[in-house]
Specification:
Elements (H helix, E strand, L loop, with lengths): L4 E14 L4 E2 L3 E2 L3 E19 L4 E5 L2 E2 L4 H11 L7 E9 L9 H21 L5 H12 L11 E4 L13 E3 L6 H4 L2 E5 L10 H7 L6 H21 L2 H20 L10 H17 L4 E4 L5 E5 L4 H11 L1 H5 L3 E5 L5 E2 L2
Parallel strand pairs: 5-7
Antiparallel strand pairs: 1-4, 1-14, 2-3, 4-7, 4-8, 5-6, 8-9, 10-12, 10-13, 11-12
Length: 339
């Protein structure tokens, strides 16, 4: 294989409703998590490969980035595919949303990379295996949340007694369990900050190892998974809203009560949350929020509430509209193999 070959995938980010926070073993979750796969916030990754001696060149947004290589090299060691030592790789990656700003860019980037790698293995060896499950297991090694991004609409990661095929090793497709009211869930992302987080998610996960509330958190997450699955299957918006917001605030409470503690929310993060609560109380609109490990607020709501929520934003948050600081996203159909 002297000539250069190429594979390319576009993979989305995801937003967890029940959060994964804390690791055990090698990239295994302390608790199960459940996420929605987004539609517009994606990473596109291509790998050019040929017979060689294991060299890797990495380009992000068209610029060669040596500083990304240590993470990629660690990832390749963890997935244990010896034949990659006999290939030369040129990896190109680009995001259509801000990197490291709390929109799970590692989820989209590592899932896209894993899908490319799994396709290369399939092409070279013509293997028969569960493609998405294999890609999910590998994506987990690069970023825990990435294992959920390989599936459409919704994914569950982590062993739970209530789902027979659930696993800590990889995520599973949860799309068939969604009530019609959640199939087209909308997600408007308020970009409170587009700066890189000063505390990475990896560092935050490590702080859970000695967290005083570690066991209470594991119990809470397992209880919330059961409630969330019930709400999604039955179209119970009130229960969904309760779990969604409890999980969002619990995640940041865990950060603040770590040792050392840290705070990723901004003043606007809190203002947006209070504005959502007031709008909901006044209008009775089905609207909720969630937050990843950053200051940005995900406003989630059913598609039939879109008109009233657009009006609320124009009335109360027009400055965000004018500054293009709102990403309008929704549940998506998962990764796309590029030609």
């Amino acid at each position: 294989m002297a000539e250069m070959n190429r594979v390319s995938w576009k993979s989305p980010s995801n937003i967890a409703i029940v959060k994964y926070w804390g690791k055990k073993g090698v990239q295994l979750p302390m608790n199960p998590s459940l996420s929605f796969t987004l539609n517009h916030c994606c990473t596109e990754t291509s790998i050019e490969y040929k017979t060689g001696n294991g060299s890797i060149d990495f380009f992000y947004e068209g610029q060669q980035r040596q500083d990304f290589l240590p993470k990629i090299e660690t990832f390749f060691k963890l997935i244990e595919l010896p034949f990659f030592a006999e290939l030369d790789l040129i990896i190109h990656s680009k995001n259509n949303f801000p990197h490291s700003a709390g929109i799970a860019s590692s989820a989209s980037s590592m899932s896209a990379l894993s899908l490319c790698i799994t396709e290369i293995e399939q092409k070279l060896y013509n293997k028969e295996f569960n493609f998405l499950q294999t890609a999910s297991k590998r994506a987990r090694m690069g970023s825990g949340s990435a294992c959920r991004s390989v599936y459409p609409k919704a994914a569950l990661w982590g062993n739970t007694l209530y789902v027979p095929h659930s696993s800590d090793q990889y995520a599973i497709d949860f799309s068939s369990e969604l009530h019609n009211d959640f199939i087209e869930l909308q997600d408007y992302i308020f970009l409170v900050s587009q700066q890189e987080k000063y505390v990475s998610s990896s560092a935050g996960h490590q702080l859970m190892n000695k967290h005083p509330y570690q066991y209470a958190r594991i119990e809470q997450a397992n209880n919330n998974i059961v409630q969330l699955m019930s709400s999604l299957k039955n179209g119970d918006w009130e229960l969904f809203q309760k779990v969604c917001e409890e999980e969002a605030l619990s995640l940041h409470a865990l950060m603040m009560s770590s040792s050392p503690g840290y705070l990723l929310l901004d003043s606007d993060s809190i203002k947006i949350i209070k504005s959502i609560q007031q709008f909901r109380a006044d209008s009775k609109t089905m609207i909720s929020y969630t937050i990843d490990a950053g200051p940005n607020i995900h406003v989630v709501f059913p598609k039939n509430a879109k008109s009233s929520i657009d009006q609320w934003i124009q009335s109360d948050w027009n400055d965000y509209l004018l500054d293009n600081r709102i990403i309008r996203d929704q549940i998506g159909n998962g990764p796309l193999k590029m030609i």
